[in-house]
Design goal:
By secondary structure, the protein is an alpha/beta fold. It has helices at 17-22, 44-57, 77-84, 100-111, 128-132, 134-138, 150-157, 169-182, 197-210, 223-229, 234-252, 267-290, and strands at 8-13, 30-34, 64-68, 91-94, 120-125, 143-148, 185-188, 214-217, 258-260, 263-265. It has two domains: 8-229, Phosphoenolpyruvate-binding domains (TIM Barrel, Alpha-Beta Barrel), CATH 3.20.20; 234-290, no CATH class. The chain binds coenzyme A and magnesium ion (MG).
């Protein structure tokens, strides 16, 4: 699995030159350069040209870089791939994935061009069929990550937006389960009210507690909250270190378990504790590289 942080994954409309420029200085762990929903039909051709040129010329540093193309049920997808090939994209994000066949089809297209030799595939999980087929999709060729498309999903389900996202839970958790079973990244959906920091924080915390690696974002103002919530905080780091120390001490005495803060610590907790420290280290390295 990709060990890079994906706390904050910012959508940038491929048509917006100013935003593409601005992204070089933003604290996003990863960027989704969008040619799909954020780009109007009459702008598609210009956006893919602008994006291919920008990606070829601009150093976005160590951030993850994904290009969201249009779906192959539209007239745009083949041209998107053709034009974007020159930029040798790190990852292609396919929207409205319904089943593994959609990924296999894209993988075959990527196989045909040398420029895509190292390109991974990410899937937008945002249709009822996609959710029902999540396990097979996660294991399809080149798959490296899921992005929850909660706006499209709400539209398809006919469900309402609620602060607790109860109507979304089955979909969110099914996709998370499938992603973890296949060892790929899972990033939560967007929070539409981009000026509501409190609401964003609550939704980030819910996504984090469910197990997501991070959140997709629509506006730079959302970066700080996602970066904070999805990073291990001081208390988590302190606990991880104390668990490891206590467990090593117990092991040295021939014991298989330790107790920290009145709670049992077994080998499996140590695996988690080491992951917490590794994640903090990966975040620190990325931040240093972005400075
Ligand atoms: N990525 C990078 N920069 C962005 C950005 C983004 N997603 N959204 C806004 N900015 C920049 C603007 O260019 C502006 O820069 P400047 O002040 O230096 O010129 C600055 O951030 C402030 O933008 P603001 O005026 O507050 O927002 P806006 O009214 O221009 O745009 C949105 C608001 C929601 C339309 C815009 O954020 C956007 O297009 N977001 C992405 C939507 C998207 O990709 N949707 C598809 C997935 S759901
Ligand atoms: Mg969508």
């Amino acid at each position: 699995m990709d060990t890079r942080p994906y706390r904050s994954v910012l959508y940038i409309p491929g048509s917006k030159e100013r935003a593409l420029e601005k992204a070089r200085g933003l604290a996003a762990d990863a960027i989704i350069f969008d040619l799909e929903d954020a780009v109007a039909a009459e702008e598609k051709a210009n956006a893919r040209r602008l994006l291919a040129q920008t990606l070829s010329e601009t150093d976005y540093g160590p951030r993850g870089k994904l290009v969201r193309i249009n779906g192959f049920d539209t007239d745009w997808a083949e041209d998107d791939l053709d034009v974007i090939a020159a930029a040798r994209p790190e990852a292609v994000l396919l929207p409205k994935v319904n089943g593994a066949a959609d990924i296999e089809d894209l993988a075959r297209r990527l196989d045909k061009r040398e420029e895509f030799a190292n390109t991974t595939i990410w899937a937008m999980m945002e249709t009822p069929n996609g959710i029902l087929n999540a396990a097979a999709i996660a294991r399809a060729p080149r798959m490296a990550g899921f992005v929850m498309g909660t706006n499209d999903l709400a539209k398809e389900l006919g469900c309402r937006f609620r602060p607790d996202r109860l109507p979304m839970q089955v979909a969110l958790q099914t996709c998370l389960m499938a992603a973890r079973a296949a060892g790929i990244v899972a990033v939560d959906g967007v929070y539409n009210a981009f000026k509501d920091d409190e609401g964003l924080r609550a939704e980030c915390e819910q996504g984090r507690d469910l197990g997501f690696d991070g959140k997709t974002l629509i506006h730079p103002a959302q970066l700080a909250v996602a970066n904070e919530v999805f990073a291990p905080d001081d208390a988590a780091l302190d606990l991880a270190r104390r668990q490891i120390a206590a467990f090593e001490e117990a092991t040295a005495k021939g014991l298989g378990v330790a107790v920290v803060d009145g709670k049992i610590v077994e080998n499996l907790h140590i695996v988690t504790a080491r992951q917490v420290l590794a994640r903090a280290e990966a975040i620190a390295q990325l931040q240093k590289a972005l400075e």
